[in-house]
Design a protein that fits this description.
The protein is mostly helical. It has two helices and two strands. It has helices at 22-43, 48-119, and strands at residues 3-8, 11-16.
Length: 120
């Protein structure tokens, strides 16, 4: 398994990851580093552990908000799919009704043509 070095708040950490995950892990560590540096600017040097906990909580809060939005959007998608299915069924029923009317009209026309041909 590959081992990479990530830097968070000027501290290097050796992290083992699955092959091919190196870039993803570096991007994640950059996100954490950004959060920690934001917190350092706001609160000063408050200790590495506290910074990591606060950064973790902020990121967890962002994830929670995104999950809530995802849940709401999935509910909207399900509702729209149900509406679409209902409307498709209405359209299919209307098409069947139209076909029946066309068949009935064709039968009447055929009957009229037969009667006309008998008159001639």
């Amino acid at each position: 398994m590959p081992e990479i070095i990530v830097n968070i708040n000027d501290q290097d950490y050796a992290i083992v990851c699955d092959p091919g995950e190196e870039n993803h892990l570096k991007q994640l560590s950059s996100r954490i580093d950004f959060k920690v540096r934001e917190l350092t600017k706001r609160f000063g040097k408050i200790g590495e552990t506290r910074l990591m906990v606060m950064a973790s909580l902020l990121i967890a809060d962002e994830i929670h908000d995104l999950n809530q939005k995802l849940k709401i959007n999935l509910e909207k998608i399900n509702s729209l799919e149900n509406d679409l299915n209902t409307k498709e069924n209405v359209i299919l029923d209307q098409q069947k009704d139209n076909e029946k009317h066309l068949e009935a009209g064709n039968e009447k026309l055929s009957d009229l043509l037969s009667r006309l041909s008998l008159v001639n």
